[in-house]
Amino acid sequence: MPSQPASMRDVAHRAGVSLSTVSRVLRDAPGVAPEVRQRVQRAADELSYVVSRNASGLVTGRTGRVSVVVPFLRPWFFGAALSGISDALREADLDMLVYQVGETRSREGWARALPLRRNTDAVVTVSMDLSEEECRRLEDVGVPMVLMGQKVSGRASVYIDDRAGTAGATRHLLNLGHTRVAYIGSRSEAWYSTSSRHRLEGYEAAMAEAGLSPWPVVKAPGHTGGELAMGELLSDHEPPTAVLAEFDDIALGAHRTLRRAGVRVPDSISLMGFDNHDAAAVMDLTTVDQAPYDSGLTAGRLTVDILNGAARHTHVEMPTQLILRQSTAAPRTTRGLFP
Amino acid sequence: MPSQPASMRDVAHRAGVSLSTVSRVLRDAPGVAPEVRQRVQRAADELSYVVSRNASGLVTGRTGRVSVVVPFLRPWFFGAALSGISDALREADLDMLVYQVGETRSREGWARALPLRRNTDAVVTVSMDLSEEECRRLEDVGVPMVLMGQKVSGRASVYIDDRAGTAGATRHLLNLGHTRVAYIGSRSEAWYSTSSRHRLEGYEAAMAEAGLSPWPVVKAPGHTGGELAMGELLSDHEPPTAVLAEFDDIALGAHRTLRRAGVRVPDSISLMGFDNHDAAAVMDLTTVDQAPYDSGLTAGRLTVDILNGAARHTHVEMPTQLILRQSTAAPRTTRGLFP
DNA sequence: CACCCTCATGAAAACGTTGCCATAACCCGG
DNA sequence: CCGGGTTATGGCAACGTTTTCATGAGGGTG
Lengths: 339, 339
Description:
The structure is a homodimer. Chain A is an alpha/beta fold.
């Protein structure tokens, strides 16, 4: 149990060979006699020695590390995404650095504030909605980058088709026979979200296709926004019979308002979310699954492929999946919220 | 816009000084004339140069990186914890490596499989419930370690008092006048959890204190377990009037069963969770907040302090907080689930 | 004016690896 | 038995920093 960690020299000494040979063995490089190889391996094990990525990176130029940049770490979505990325990187024996840039973002310098320059082999951004200029700045770091949750032409991206997702969701409600279908979206000043815009567009397109006029209500993100928006909708002179929310958290907020108002779901109002949040299952909320774990896994593997120079598809569109639960149903034939 | 990232030599050349001087400037080391300092700083900025942690770590022995080891990344709890740790490390300009060891854990070698040895300054484990032996193996890595969500004497730990938490929760229900208070716990074969045991003990202690006999039901973790357990409780010849769940997810599962059975909360049965999960707010679930973000922040700062040799308290107990919402109330005076 | 101190600066030796080149040992065919 | 090729091994110079030590320029004091 050495208080100073063993170095390659120690291993070499113990195995009675030179540094070069030890290096070759530990890198699985050819040109070492099997017997010697075994001896070195044993010596390394006995000293529980592992190669310093620091030192090897210095000469190879590879750090064995991939940086993942996320706006936030708390929302459910990012945990799932990170989990996928982590698993993919582990397969390739790469370590994962995580940078949460949250509030820093508004300040101009977050991209350069991150010590990425010589310290990472690749950068994966998750739902960062980077502007063209931010992309360029990040590219300046000089390592490959993969964008998850954002589609940028000319740059490797893994994303879902938000428009198709909400369009499908909307059609589900229309197919049930609803005609008064409202949409609760979000807008935050701190964070401009492309996916937010796309989801609204998908809804609008499906409504237009059915010859109906869209009915969007936009509030601050989070469940509070959903609560307020639903309150507003309930106070309309003729409330909607179905409501689609931009994401599950909003839908859950809306659900709370309905519960308090004594409006039954789906009897009086059908409610739908988007994301397939953990809590959606337990709340029996019909939603659209976007499998962030799978996206993360894909993004991670894509990164590995690019690093190995074996990347083929640089744009990957992940499928979304309608999850039918108990919160949507055909509209009642009688009018009014309370039968 | 150099395709090869700039090195310190380039900066030195551009500023017309030696390597040593550049190094001193960028480390904020004393002994540089203000005018020169400024000149070097500018040169570095223009080349958008950042120090290679790889190279500096090689000589200082510090990597500027802290490893965080978690069993899983997906559950809500870990995102919040990581967020706090990340913020704390960022304050000290340390990078965060994340290792998700999930299933690997059962295999003996996860601790040594981690290439931590020379590649990290400290290790933070989150809810890993390490055995004494695993602790020792991890300590072999030769860097300070901080345990979050686990109390181990002689080792830096940040944790909550699970026993006190459930005891307080139980007393809340007892104070409302309930006498038939059941507890839904979890047990998984893959994962032995100390906190799980402690929470049960807290409940039992509070019940004993009130002279009541405990009524625990143990199922698999997750909301499915909650659903099943609640079904079981409802089929008792005299169902409980209040139920405490080991964590919110279980409580939410139980809530679903109640909803389906048409049993009203809190009118007929009071329901309580533990954790203050995102979804608990939206479901109006009374619960116990354990602020994983704050724990993460504390653990992160403790790590930084230890690294700076300034650690004072190596054991930090984080407070828990009862969050009163709408799912608990005094028991009805009339008997039966349906008034 | 000589002396010693302080302060700013530069030169050079680490740090722990990998890559390249040299060397030694061996095998094979002529 | 000798030349040429292959294969295993060692030596040494990088890689980009920090750190230690040396040097030299001023500046105050006696």
